[in-house]
Amino acid sequence: MTTQEQVLDVARRARQAAAELAPLPRATKDAALHAIADALLARSAEIVEANAGDVARAREAGTSEYMIDRLSLSTERVEKIAAAVRHVASLPDPVGESVRGYTLPNGLELRQIRVPLGVVGIIYEGRPNVTVDAAALTLKSGNAVLLRGSSSAYDSNVALVEVMRSALTDVPADAVQLVPGRDRDSVKYLMRARGLVDVLIPRGGASLINSVVEESTVPVIETGVGNCHVYVDADADLGMAVDILVNAKTQRPSVCNAAETVLVHRDIAADFLPRALEALRGKGVTVHGDEAVRAYGDDVVAATEEDWSNEYLSLDLAAAVVGSLEDAVAHIRRYGSAHTEAIVTTSQSAARRFVALVDSAAVMVNASTRFTDGEEFGFGAEIGISTQKLHARGPMGLPELTSTKYVVTGEGHLKGA
Amino acid sequence: MTTQEQVLDVARRARQAAAELAPLPRATKDAALHAIADALLARSAEIVEANAGDVARAREAGTSEYMIDRLSLSTERVEKIAAAVRHVASLPDPVGESVRGYTLPNGLELRQIRVPLGVVGIIYEGRPNVTVDAAALTLKSGNAVLLRGSSSAYDSNVALVEVMRSALTDVPADAVQLVPGRDRDSVKYLMRARGLVDVLIPRGGASLINSVVEESTVPVIETGVGNCHVYVDADADLGMAVDILVNAKTQRPSVCNAAETVLVHRDIAADFLPRALEALRGKGVTVHGDEAVRAYGDDVVAATEEDWSNEYLSLDLAAAVVGSLEDAVAHIRRYGSAHTEAIVTTSQSAARRFVALVDSAAVMVNASTRFTDGEEFGFGAEIGISTQKLHARGPMGLPELTSTKYVVTGEGHLKGA
After folding, report:
1. Per-residue pLDDT reduced to its tens digit, A279-335
2. pLDDT digits (tens, 9 = 90+) for A209-242
3. Can you give the pLDDT at residue B184?
4. Where does the Aldehyde dehydrogenase domain lie (chains A, B) (predicted)?
5. Which of A2, A288, A301, B113 is the most buried (most CB within 10 A)?
């Protein structure tokens, strides 16, 4: 079979599996998740062995230690992955939840209930734990999944998917499938499998996400690019502002909800910037500032136009002084990625204006941008963070992996003229 | 300016208007809607005159009387359109509605609130009333709208949009804009205006909708193609089944929620089909049947493979006998458009199975397919009927024209390790 035929074949089998999976009760799905966790533990040695091959090849290819760390599995890591699967089993089943329900004046009973999306395709980075996380979340929400991980983790993913499928008995094994092929072509065919695949969720870098958005005829949920801002208002508690900025920038710089730009109201710039720059310096942060910021530190690098749009994912921070809250909002609208923005202020009116005017998935008032996360938001788990406006926005949990269906019950109701 | 520049220009102005419109309170938006209704009434003569030109050109081009009727405006019709705008003003404002809200264990207060989508593009058929309906619904939900109606109604739409814009004072006039140009190119540029337009809603025939879905990089909500089925179960009340089938097929054959296929359980075929065929004959319906159906009527036309997929929108009906409820579901999955399917049955178990297994936007139990409609469902108004699974499914009212935003309020909360 060609790559295209192989991709269409797994997609067709996923579609059939999705139809069988959709009406299954919670108990069957939870039992399948526990069986998956058991199998992962029982066969963790062969998973770790397959992973060792991927890691060796990555090292040979000169991959950074940071990426190698994300790629690597150990017995302890497999145990954590299995525990995460059991955690998903413990979460409420979104399928069947009644979203709306009432009786119409003519006596028709209307209910809007959650149903699975169907077949979900996930395109993701070289982190084998995502293979299992994504499979668990889609299975729990009654969806079949097509997993297309990074080719750097291919052997790990083959092993993980084989182990998961071997554990499925009352759930069709084709509900969990790896998209075959290491090359980029398989992504292309997945993007054109409209009618077989209901939604694609690309995770990872901006270039992957943009290419999927541009080329896919299957509906896409964009995730994860975060050029997050902290705005320090004229009425900020400056100590709190320094703490929030340092936390948002440095607590884990490589993730999408880390801050990349600070915007400082000019009325407090002279008080705030010396303290902030000192604290950032202490954490090893390189600040890329506009002219006004550079007046407060010799070590501030001159910011270029690109710095304002950059998602550094490193210990770099862009910094600018703004004339007003409205100027800060205009800057965010122009350069931001609509992920998460924070305001630090003691003014109720400034907080309300910022919340109303900023058009992003999450707006933090006196809190670190790092809190935009499915676990932090109390969703129990997360399949990604949507930065688009349709269907889901912000952290996506199990309900975001469902659609709805209207069920209307009558007793021979006919439509009048 | 080229057509492309013109489309990008209106899209940019819509984006700016959307940012100004989003935070406006309900009272301002409702006042704008009443001002639009007033202006439509005051200037109805010039609207009807502009429309007369479109109608004359359509007649010259040999357009069917049915299409001419949809295109035509009169003083009375303009009055109805204005009344519909006032009705939209009376509906609740979805913007600001709290969808979720709780305090997290760490004391952060989380709220998920409805916000406008931003810029909504609507591509629609030659019905000038849609120009005003769509503008009213998008304005009420805080969105800017780009209207791209059929070129057959271009002069009518120019007049309607001019009248609506002239009525806007506290709402930016660029919140309501007609996409310039009569040719198809303007649709093409609208579909590529990603980043400026947040969603495109194509309404009309399957070919328009498919081409938008295939080519658009702007997210699309598919609407309205309805190959709706009535399944008459072995345990049906046959009198009710005949009434529902006749109502679903003939009450208004040209709309998407009219029935196009009837599937009859073989155990009651001999009792049901003679009665059904007689009733359908009385209403002038041509039945396209499989072999089993043709045994009950000499006037039943032999169905071809295409008949099962056809959205006739006329007094034609495809008919087949099936061996079981599951066979009916398989037929619907294979040939349907996932809009609306009905089951007629007295069996609770059959109803439950049909509802669970049919994967369509709406499932009717003992009711006509004709009830799938925003007004009938109690939404007050409708922008279209989504047949896709992402974002909105089934009739879309005002809440479906919104996205959400998370607002998280703390008192200096930092993320721990």
Report:
1. 999 999 999 999 999 999 999 999 999 999 999 999 999 999 999 999 999 999 999
2. 888 888 899 999 988 789 999 999 999 999 999 9
3. 82
4. 3-281
5. A288
CB contact under 8 A, B410 and A366: yes
Options 3.30.830.10, 3.30.1370.60, 1.10.10.60, 3.40.605.10; CATH of A3-222+389-409: 3.40.605.10
DSSP state of A223: B
Instruction: Tell me what the pLDDT averaged over chain B comes to.
Output: 95
For B:3-32, CB contacts with A below 8 A are 19, 22-23
Tell me whether residues B389 and A110 touch, CB distance under 8 A.
no
pLDDT-based confidence at residue A404 (cuts at 50, 70, 90): very high
Question: What is the ipTM for the molecules in this complex?
Answer: 0.94
Q: Maximum distance among all alpha carbons in chain A? A: 80
Tell me which chain A residue has its CA closest to the CA of residue B239.
A412
Look at A108 and B405 and tell me if their CB atoms are within 8 Å: no
CA B255 to chain centre: 10
Q: How many CB atoms within 10 Å of residue B348?
A: 10
Domain map (residue ranges) of chain A: 3-222+389-409, 228-371
pTM: 0.94
Sequence-ordered list of residues with C-beta below 8 angstroms from that of A88, at least 6 positions apart, any chain: A33, A133, A136, A137, A140, A380, A381
The shortest C-alpha distance from A110 to chain B (Å) reads 7
Check CB contact of B368 with chain A, cutoff 8 Å.
Answer: yes
With H, G, I as helix, E, B as strand and everything else as coil, classify residue B347.
Answer: coil
- How far apart, in whole angstroms, are the C-alpha atoms of residue B304 and residue A173? 36
Q: Which of residues 79-138 of B touch A (CB under 8 A)?
A: 102, 104, 108, 110, 112, 115, 117-118
Mean pLDDT score across all residues of chain A: 95
**φ, ψ for residue B344, nearest 5 deg:** -110, 115
Please tell me which residue of chain A has the smallest CA distance to B193: A214
Closest CA to B168 of B343, B54, B333, B21: B21
**Which CATH superfamily is A228-371 part of?**
Aldehyde Dehydrogenase; Chain A, domain 2 (3.40.309.10)
CB pairs under 8 A, 24+ apart, for A168-173? A168/A32, A168/A35, A168/A36, A169/A32, A169/A35, A170/A24, A170/A28, A170/A31, A170/A32, A171/A21, A171/A24, A171/A28, A171/A29, A171/A32, A171/A139, A172/A16, A172/A17, A172/A20, A172/A21, A172/A144, A173/A17
Among chain A residues, the shortest Cα distance to B15 is held by: A333
The Cα–Cα gap between B92 and B137 comes to: 11
Distance from CA of B402 to the nearest CA of A (A): 8
Put simply, the answer to whether A243 touches B412 (Cβ < 8 Å) is yes
Question: Are the beta carbons of B409 and A22 separated by less than 8 Å?
Answer: no
In B237-391, which ranges are E strands? 259-265, 286-289, 301-302, 316-322, 340-344, 362-367, 384-386
Distance from CA of B355 to the nearest CA of A (A): 7
Query: How would you label A344-377 residue by residue, b for 16+ Cβ within 10 Å and e otherwise?
Result: bbeeeebbebbbbbbbbbbbbbbbbbbbbbbebb
Integer Cα distance of A161 and A182 in angstroms: 15
**What pLDDT was estimated at residue B187?**
92
